[in-house]
Amino acid sequence: MDTSDPNIIFNDKGESDYYLNFRNNILPNWHTGDAGRQELMRIADKIKKGSKNRDFDCIIGLSGGLDSSYCAFVAKEIMGLRPLIFHVDAGWNTQQAVENIECLVDGLELDLYTEVINWEEIKDLQLAFFKSQIPDQDLVQDYAFFSALYQFAHKNKIKYVLTGGNFSTECCREPEEWGGYPGIDKTLVMDIHKKFGSRPLKTFPIVDILVYKIYYKYVLGMEIFKPLNLVPYIKEEAEMLLKEKFGWQKFLHKHHESRFTRFYEDYWLPKKFGFEKRRAHFSSLILTGQMTREEALKRISKPELDEQFLEKEFEYVAHKLDLTIEELTSIFNGPNKTYKDYKNKIGIIKLGSKMMSLLGLEKRLFR
């Protein structure tokens, strides 16, 4: 991590607040040995007892990427649960992601439900976000993924949600300035769409953060668990296990299961805004002993994908969104803005996150 995060703090030893947060807040509370195993099985028993006489114990959102795939494996093979695998097709799946989902579902003998987002609506919203000129271009997909899952779970009375969120590969949180906007902010989405959208969002799923954090959790009793924080989770070992058991194929880098996210993180964000999310991704691996700082610096010194490939992806994204290359280039060259230029509820979100940190419910650094 470097000063491309404008709020990073270094002490007189050169230690960043990310490192100190990991050492002082995450590490002492992160248990993947016997204590973690016991807690994992306690959660498994709770889920089983709370899901008697139901078709499924819980629901897992599966993208085809490593974290959610390994979460599904842990849920079935270690916790002994009967999860429903839920996938959201937002129109940007890579073929590799589709194949990974198929081989994992077949190999674990699980049921899969796929929610297909209305393409015309998500296309309109993604165009609106591009025109808004903010760094947070992947919010549209993220909102679709999580909102659709929460709505489906609510509708079908599935009380327990398991996610692949974890400390092992994500302990270094992506800064808000890099497009790491926290939570589903319906106010922000609606304001951007009102200014730049052209068609009604009749079916696009948006479950506001206050709804799933308060109403779903405390009124409906929905609980979200992160089992990967309770088991040994080493990226390369997990990739190898899934490959050997199911034929699952690893990606070049995190989030590459989505063609849009890959383009956004490898082209749009670094070239237009100067932000490299790989810094946070690699920092997490460094902190957890899975990568050396020297290896990270060498890898980040050059693009993850070659320039010719990225230029072709630029053309692909433009055409898929019904833009000419010139139109997308014009947006790319437009003045950069931030979410602060639009209506939002970041103040409420930050207050809630600070309260969660004080209560010990959130360990990752949140400013």
> What's the overall average pLDDT, rounded?
94
CATH architecture: 3-Layer(aba) Sandwich
Number of strand elements: 5
User: Compute the gyration radius: what is it?
Assistant: 20 Å
The helix-strand sequence is: HHEHEHEHHEHHEHHHHHHH
Number of domains: 1
Shape: globular
| CATH classification class | Alpha Beta
Report the CATH superfamily: HUPs
What report would you give on this structure?
This protein has one domain (31-358): Rossmann fold (3-Layer(aba) Sandwich). It is built from 15 helices and 5 strands. It has helices spanning 17-26, 34-50, 66-78, 95-108, 119-132, 139-155, 186-196, 209-219, 235-246, 259-273, 277-287, 293-300, 307-320, 325-332, 346-358, and strands at residues 58-61, 83-89, 111-116, 160-162, 223-225. β1, α3 (66-78) and β2 form a beta-alpha-beta unit. It is globular.
Short description:
This protein is of the alpha/beta class and 367 residues long. The protein is built from 15 helices and five strands. It has a single domain (31-358), classed as HUPs (Rossmann fold).
How does the SSE layout of this entry go?
Layout: H1 17-26, H2 34-50, E1 58-61, H3 66-78, E2 83-89, H4 95-108, E3 111-116, H5 119-132, H6 139-155, E4 160-162, H7 186-196, H8 209-219, E5 223-225, H9 235-246, H10 259-273, H11 277-287, H12 293-300, H13 307-320, H14 325-332, H15 346-358
Parallel strand pairs: 1-2, 1-4, 2-3, 4-5
Helix pairs in contact: 3-4, 3-9, 5-7, 10-13
